[in-house]
Amino acid sequence: MSKKVVVISTSLRANSNSNVLAESFAKGAKDAGNEIDFISLRGKSIGFCTGCLACQECGECVIKDDALEITERVLEADVVVWATPIYYYEMSGQMKTLIDRMNSMFPKDYKFRDVYFMSAAAEDEEFVPEKAVSGLGGWIDCYEKAELKGTVFCGGVTEPGDINGNEKLSAAYEMGKNV
């Protein structure tokens, strides 16, 4: 059965390594017959959550920017894939900002059950993505029907394109193929 897969690439850098990882996952999922909705945060306007909680009353954030449309697309997805560069052992700021802005989803019904996480960093130790995965886990914990199904981390990539030819691209592709 075909699934609707939303892939959110949170890097703002052109040709970023985490974006290439996300594209590999998306290609695998598409090759398996799934519908792909690829969202790049490059060029998007996403303001900070002000904590007003008006979204809990009116059903959407009162800040009118690109976060509103992205939130609606995530609500309709069967699978959500997050991709981020790792900065200071954490997810990118724009990823965290979008997660905060998705607060309007909390009281709503949502379709997604499976969540995946792709990340890339200059450092290549195994522990590098742990805090970012934990941060995403906090978001997933708020959606009791959802769970983290898999992660791919590619370390040792700094400059745009460093990831090309890396075996982690195959791992991301295979993970996507098996959603």
Provide structural commentary.
This protein is of the alpha/beta class. It has one domain: Flavodoxin domain (Rossmann fold, 3-Layer(aba) Sandwich), CATH 3.40.50. 35% of the residues lie in helices and 19% in strands. The chain has a 5-stranded parallel β-sheet with strand order 2-1-3-4-5, with helices on both faces. The longest helix has 15 residues. The protein is globular and about 50 Å long. The relative contact order is 0.22.
- Beta percentage is 15-25%
Number of helices: 6
Ranges with pLDDT <50 over ≥5 residues? none
| Known CATH architecture | 3-Layer(aba) Sandwich
Please give the domain count. 1
CATH topology: Rossmann fold
Number of strands: 5
Helix content: 25-40%
> What integer is the average pLDDT?
97
SSE arrangement, N to C: EHEHHEHEHEH
CATH class division: Alpha Beta
* Coarse structural class: alpha/beta
| Strand order, sheet with most strands | 2-1-3-4-5
Shape: globular
* Gyration radius, rounded: 15 Å
Distance between the termini: 10 Å
CATH superfamily: Flavodoxin domain
Main sheet properties: 5 strands, parallel
What are its keywords?
179 residues, five-stranded parallel beta sheet, alpha/beta, Rossmann fold
Q: What topology emerges from the helices and strands here?
A:
Blueprint (H helix, E strand, L loop, with lengths): L3 E6 L7 H15 L3 E6 L13 H5 L7 H10 L3 E7 L7 H9 L12 E7 L9 H12 L5 E8 L12 H11 L2
Helix pairs in contact: 1-6
